[in-house]
Description:
5 helices, six-stranded mixed sheet, Rossmann fold, alpha/beta
Amino acid sequence: MSKRIILYRHAKSSWEDLNIDDYDRQLNSKGLLDAEHMANSIGTKIILPDLIICSGAVRTRQTIDALRKKNPFIEIEYDDNLYLAESFAIDFLVSEVANEIETLLICGHNPGLTDFLNQKTKNNFDEIPTSCLVVIEFENYLWKDVPQSKGIINYIEYPGMTKDSGLNNIFKY
Protein backbone atom coordinates (compact mmCIF):
# COMPACT_ATOMS: atom_id res chain seq x y z
CA MET A 1 0.00 0.00 0.00
CA SER A 2 1.10 3.55 -0.62
CA LYS A 3 1.69 5.91 2.28
CA ARG A 4 -0.27 9.06 3.03
CA ILE A 5 0.70 12.05 5.17
CA ILE A 6 -1.80 14.62 6.37
CA LEU A 7 0.00 17.82 7.32
CA TYR A 8 -2.02 19.89 9.76
CA ARG A 9 -0.79 23.28 10.86
CA HIS A 10 -2.12 24.23 14.29
CA ALA A 11 -5.09 26.59 14.51
CA LYS A 12 -4.77 30.33 15.18
CA SER A 13 -3.14 31.04 18.52
CA SER A 14 -3.38 33.95 20.90
CA TRP A 15 -0.79 36.69 21.19
CA GLU A 16 -2.68 38.50 23.98
CA ASP A 17 -0.17 37.78 26.74
CA LEU A 18 3.36 38.36 25.50
CA ASN A 19 4.74 37.09 28.82
CA ILE A 20 3.65 33.52 28.03
CA ASP A 21 6.34 31.26 26.61
CA ASP A 22 5.71 30.48 22.92
CA TYR A 23 5.36 26.76 23.70
CA ASP A 24 2.50 27.53 26.12
CA ARG A 25 0.43 29.82 23.89
CA GLN A 26 -3.21 28.72 23.58
CA LEU A 27 -5.63 28.96 20.68
CA ASN A 28 -7.67 32.12 20.41
CA SER A 29 -11.47 31.98 19.93
CA LYS A 30 -11.15 31.88 16.12
CA GLY A 31 -8.59 29.10 16.41
CA LEU A 32 -10.90 27.02 18.61
CA LEU A 33 -13.73 27.40 16.07
CA ASP A 34 -11.43 26.62 13.14
CA ALA A 35 -10.11 23.49 14.89
CA GLU A 36 -13.70 22.25 15.31
CA HIS A 37 -14.46 22.99 11.67
CA MET A 38 -11.38 21.21 10.40
CA ALA A 39 -12.02 18.21 12.69
CA ASN A 40 -15.26 17.75 10.76
CA SER A 41 -13.32 17.50 7.49
CA ILE A 42 -11.07 14.75 8.80
CA GLY A 43 -13.05 11.56 8.47
CA THR A 44 -15.67 13.04 6.16
CA LYS A 45 -13.70 14.70 3.35
CA ILE A 46 -10.41 12.93 3.98
CA ILE A 47 -9.53 9.57 5.46
CA LEU A 48 -8.95 9.27 9.19
CA PRO A 49 -5.31 8.80 10.13
CA ASP A 50 -4.03 5.59 11.67
CA LEU A 51 -1.60 7.61 13.77
CA ILE A 52 -1.23 11.24 14.82
CA ILE A 53 2.14 12.67 15.72
CA CYS A 54 1.61 16.03 17.39
CA SER A 55 3.97 18.67 18.70
CA GLY A 56 3.75 18.94 22.47
CA ALA A 57 3.03 22.69 22.32
CA VAL A 58 -0.28 23.75 23.87
CA ARG A 59 -1.72 25.14 20.61
CA THR A 60 -1.09 21.93 18.67
CA ARG A 61 -2.57 19.83 21.47
CA GLN A 62 -5.68 22.01 21.47
CA THR A 63 -5.94 21.73 17.68
CA ILE A 64 -5.80 17.93 17.87
CA ASP A 65 -8.20 17.82 20.86
CA ALA A 66 -11.05 18.87 18.56
CA LEU A 67 -10.32 15.86 16.32
CA ARG A 68 -9.86 13.51 19.28
CA LYS A 69 -13.29 14.45 20.68
CA LYS A 70 -14.87 13.10 17.50
CA ASN A 71 -12.45 10.17 17.08
CA PRO A 72 -11.02 9.14 20.45
CA PHE A 73 -9.75 5.81 19.12
CA ILE A 74 -7.02 7.31 16.90
CA GLU A 75 -3.56 6.56 18.24
CA ILE A 76 -1.63 9.69 19.14
CA GLU A 77 1.95 10.45 20.06
CA TYR A 78 3.06 13.82 21.40
CA ASP A 79 6.60 14.61 20.35
CA ASP A 80 8.46 17.73 21.42
CA ASN A 81 10.83 17.15 18.50
CA LEU A 82 8.02 18.54 16.30
CA TYR A 83 7.97 21.84 18.18
CA LEU A 84 9.38 24.28 15.62
CA ALA A 85 10.94 21.31 13.80
CA GLU A 86 12.78 21.81 10.55
CA SER A 87 12.01 19.67 7.52
CA PHE A 88 14.87 17.22 8.15
CA ALA A 89 13.52 16.53 11.67
CA ILE A 90 10.07 15.82 10.25
CA ASP A 91 11.69 13.48 7.69
CA PHE A 92 13.36 11.60 10.53
CA LEU A 93 10.10 11.23 12.48
CA VAL A 94 8.35 9.95 9.34
CA SER A 95 11.12 7.43 8.63
CA GLU A 96 10.61 5.91 12.09
CA VAL A 97 6.86 5.23 11.69
CA ALA A 98 5.79 1.57 11.79
CA ASN A 99 5.02 0.24 8.32
CA GLU A 100 1.56 -1.04 9.25
CA ILE A 101 0.51 2.63 9.48
CA GLU A 102 -0.87 3.76 6.13
CA THR A 103 -2.07 7.28 6.96
CA LEU A 104 -0.07 9.55 9.25
CA LEU A 105 -1.24 12.95 10.48
CA ILE A 106 1.46 15.39 11.57
CA CYS A 107 0.26 18.41 13.56
CA GLY A 108 2.95 21.02 13.88
CA HIS A 109 4.27 24.46 13.11
CA ASN A 110 5.65 26.67 10.40
CA PRO A 111 8.09 27.14 8.86
CA GLY A 112 8.90 23.42 9.15
CA LEU A 113 5.58 22.13 7.79
CA THR A 114 5.74 24.43 4.77
CA ASP A 115 9.37 23.53 4.09
CA PHE A 116 8.54 19.82 4.38
CA LEU A 117 5.61 20.24 1.98
CA ASN A 118 7.74 22.14 -0.54
CA GLN A 119 10.47 19.49 -0.40
CA LYS A 120 8.05 16.58 -0.76
CA THR A 121 5.98 18.02 -3.64
CA LYS A 122 6.36 20.23 -6.70
CA ASN A 123 5.36 23.31 -4.72
CA ASN A 124 7.25 26.36 -3.62
CA PHE A 125 5.37 28.85 -1.53
CA ASP A 126 5.93 30.92 1.54
CA GLU A 127 3.51 29.64 4.14
CA ILE A 128 0.55 27.35 4.66
CA PRO A 129 -2.09 29.11 6.76
CA THR A 130 -3.18 28.16 10.26
CA SER A 131 -5.64 25.24 10.43
CA CYS A 132 -4.55 24.09 6.97
CA LEU A 133 -4.87 20.40 6.05
CA VAL A 134 -2.76 19.07 3.19
CA VAL A 135 -2.84 15.42 2.14
CA ILE A 136 0.24 14.08 0.35
CA GLU A 137 0.24 10.63 -1.29
CA PHE A 138 3.48 8.70 -1.69
CA GLU A 139 3.98 5.62 -3.84
CA ASN A 140 6.25 4.16 -1.18
CA TYR A 141 5.48 1.02 0.75
CA LEU A 142 7.91 1.77 3.56
CA TRP A 143 8.03 4.91 5.69
CA LYS A 144 11.84 4.78 5.72
CA ASP A 145 11.73 5.54 1.96
CA VAL A 146 9.55 8.65 2.24
CA PRO A 147 12.39 11.06 3.16
CA GLN A 148 13.99 10.49 -0.28
CA SER A 149 10.66 10.63 -2.16
CA LYS A 150 8.35 13.11 -3.81
CA GLY A 151 4.62 12.89 -3.27
CA ILE A 152 1.48 14.27 -4.85
CA ILE A 153 -1.02 16.52 -3.11
CA ASN A 154 -4.52 15.12 -3.40
CA TYR A 155 -6.38 17.42 -0.99
CA ILE A 156 -6.07 20.79 0.65
CA GLU A 157 -8.43 22.72 2.90
CA TYR A 158 -8.19 25.61 5.30
CA PRO A 159 -10.79 27.91 6.87
CA GLY A 160 -11.93 30.60 4.47
CA MET A 161 -10.56 28.80 1.41
CA THR A 162 -12.40 29.56 -1.80
CA LYS A 163 -12.03 28.14 -5.25
CA ASP A 164 -10.13 31.27 -6.26
CA SER A 165 -7.88 31.46 -3.19
CA GLY A 166 -4.31 32.41 -3.97
CA LEU A 167 -2.86 29.54 -1.93
CA ASN A 168 -5.10 27.02 -3.67
CA ASN A 169 -3.81 28.23 -7.04
CA ILE A 170 -0.21 27.78 -5.91
CA PHE A 171 -0.65 24.06 -5.38
CA LYS A 172 0.25 21.85 -8.34
CA TYR A 173 -1.91 18.76 -7.98
